[in-house]
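Notebook p. 47: complex prediction with magnesium ion.
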Amino acid sequence: MTGAPKAAIRVEELAKDYRMGDNVVHALAGVSFEIKYGELVAVMGPSGSGKSTLMNIVGGLDRPSSGRYFCNDENVGAMDEGALARFRNRTIGFVFQQFNLLPRLQAWENVELPLVYAESPPAERKEKAHELLARVGLADRADHRPTQLSGGQQQRVAIARALACDPTILLADEPTGALDTATGEDVLGLFNELNRSGLTILMVTHDEEVAAFARRVMRFRDGALISDEAVRQAA
Ligand code: ADP
Ligand code: MG
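Predicted complex, structure tokens below:
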């Protein structure tokens, strides 16, 4: 051991190419940055600028074409498929625009799923799922199925699910993109609250208001990180 890791996330010259026939799309064109524990970072940029490509690599859903990626000082790029699957399950929480809940399962069963994969005992899973639903304000909806919940409630369930294995970092790719403005603000308030209690969050958003409440904004264009700025907080 060399002491506590310095950064939650460190990427160096990260690149991802997609080959489309004779063309190559440089979805990420050599990106480097570090995210410290406890940060809340907004990722912004026009459609097609590489935001989702970055999130998918950081989340272990995809691998870069070149470059290096460390999480908790672990070399994610060097992980084999089994280690990468464990990494996705335990170290990363992922929240998607479309919630991606399983429609046949009750809210608490959706939340416990990552713990099922992590092979934790049923009684513990159930207790943790209910705890997490209470934390996102849905204690009284634990037995509801996704279709019995509003969009904002479904996204809260998805956030609870993302937290099931106590991830190092929560990734959210346009988490309010499918919600109306008021509901979206509600969900953003929850992210803010989770960050204040210490969770590290990296969030893709088009919403300049999120950028204002994040402590840092990274802007992408054509696969490149074109600005990376600390945001001065209003008092
Ligand atoms: P964003 O999330 O910022 O809208 P993406 O990361 O989804 O951007 O896409 C970045 C670029 O990579 C775009 O030009 C997109 O068309 C391309 N791209 C993304 N995924 C694939 C894929 N699976 N195959 C081919 N091209 C892709
Ligand atoms: Mg995207």
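Notes: The pocket of adenosine-5'-diphosphate (ligand 1) is lined by residues 18, 20, 25, 27, 45, 47-53 (CB under 6 Å). The radius of gyration is 18 Å.
Next step: compare against the earlier run before touching the bench.
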